[in-house]
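User: Please go through the entry that follows and flag anything odd:
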Amino acid sequence: MSSDRVSQIAGHLNYPKGMLAGQVAIITGSGQGIGAEAARLFANEGAKVIVADIDAKKSAAVAEDINKSGGQAIAVAGDITDAEYIKTLVQKAADFGNGKINLIVNNAGYTWDGVIHKMTDKQWDTIIALHCTAPFNLVRAAAPYFRVKDGAHRCIINISSTSGVHGNAGQLNYSLAKAGVTGFTKTIAKEWGPAFGVRSNTIAFGHILTRLTAAKENGDFVKGPDGEKIAIGIPQKTAAAAGDAMFADIALRRPGTPAEAASAVLAVASPLFSYVTGQTIMVTGGRNM
């Protein structure tokens, strides 16, 4: 390797304005949890962040927090399964970015569990639409901003789960959707990588401390397609029955935090991963090794 090349690589490790300086990032489901932490981290690294979430109050609060901390963010609230909302989201992101979009993190989602023989069509259709069709619609709508030969950094990150890699009892809809994300990611990498340099990767999370893994008895819920309340979380009796065994198959013997999960998203989005594309990156604390 030449000394000039060594110097070039070393220079890439110095980011006085942040690793994502000047880049424009759409992060779905960023009103709370992993998405909100990722939005803050991206902004800290110089990105202009579009906080996209169905909860207008929460997305506005995250954007306000970023702006008060010296970052740049706007909130664009809406239902990611609504095609008209996606058009609005992409347009507002492009306007905020002065005609460019560099990063998309398809993070929005929830679970609607049921065993195979009792799963309803609505449970099936809703989860597939949320985790597969919505990210496709967003990426397709943003295509004019990614299929550009200007040498700028562009990256799409699709959030998956160990359920999509290994399957999970009671989550056939979610497991299929998250498994589909892998093929979605690889196809983007193969279609948009050669001519446009777009990177596309999947991050598959294990047990992260979010509302999806909190006690179901807390009463947290999301609204389904017809406004019905869908309870989320893990039943306390299930967690209690598992006891220490709940984390026994995790090498680090603990769940991950939203900040740790978001840090992985930042790492994949950053120039530090500039030669990584089409991969499923397991962020699990060593579960399912």
Remarks:
- The chain is about 45% helix and 15% strand.
